[in-house]
Specification:
alpha+beta; single chain; five-stranded mixed β-barrel
Length: 246
């Protein structure tokens, strides 16, 4: 029963999370959080906010992170965006298939000069992906680990988050943006019903098992004096009256 109640509470929390994220995703884009507020940024309070940022791409320091999307397998292209105030924000410009991983195959999609990027604020993904650790020294990346990428690319004053660029940020043959998957599994109602059903089944089984001991009357066996079994001493819940021979 306790596990069932816990799943009901989890469902309430999950529905509130989905509603909150939906509001953030579809809200008007706002400037990214100020540098002073970066230490306080968390997934609960900031992830998936619709934000905008301006600066200049450092294309020579891009990082390719392995990805599987609705477009197939390939790479996310993470490019540093240098701002006028000296800070840097990693921009996930979008997806490229394996045959276009080489920057020379998409030079026409790498804008120069000042640009404005809009997208969703995402929290860093440290260490690596599922069962795979990032290997910076070999330039193999399985997650968008902001701190590790910044260290590998000699970047400074880097924001502790990255931005998933939206579809409108694409330029020419550049990466395909707007592929962020915003989906939260919500099976808590099924889990709750399962736990409640198991609890009721267990209660029913216990009732059937122990009801005999609760409602059964004692049975007494009266044996005639002098009988062959008169001297037997039976014990237990079904023991009869013991009659001593005269």
């Amino acid at each position: 029963m306790a596990l069932g109640v816990w799943q009901v509470e989890r469902r309430t929390w999950k529905l509130a999370l989905i509603d909150r994220v939906e509001q953030r995703v579809h809200a008007r884009a706002q400037p990214i959080p100020s540098r002073a507020s970066w230490p306080a940024i968390t997934a609960a309070s900031d992830e998936y906010r619709h934000v905008s940022v301006a600066g200049r791409f450092l294309h020579d320091r891009e990082t390719l992170v392995q990805a599987v999307t609705e477009e197939g397998p390939g790479y996310w292209v993470l490019t540093p965006l240098e701002r006028d105030d000296g800070t840097t924000v990693l921009i996930n410009r979008g997806f490229v298939p394996s045959e276009r991983r080489d920057p020379s195959a998409r030079q026409g999609g790498n804008p120069d000069g000042q640009v404005e990027v809009r997208g969703l604020l995402r929290i860093t993904e440290p260490k690596g992906g599922f069962l795979r650790d990032n290997v910076p020294q070999h330039n193999r990346w399985y997650s968008r680990d902001v701190a590790a990428i910044a260290a590998a690319r000699d970047l400074h004053n880097v924001a502790p988050f990255f931005i998933d660029a939206d579809a409108g940020s694409r330029s020419g043959p550049g990466p395909i943006g707007g592929l962020t998957v915003v989906s939260f599994p919500n099976n808590h109602l099924i889990y709750a019903l399962t736990w409640f059903a198991l609890a009721f089944m267990l209660a029913g089984r216990l009732f059937v098992t122990f009801r005999g001991g609760l409602f059964r009357r004692q049975r007494f066996v009266h044996e005639p004096a002098g009988g062959l079994d008169a001297s037997a001493r039976r014990t237990g819940s079904d023991a009869g009256t013991i009659v001593e021979p005269t």
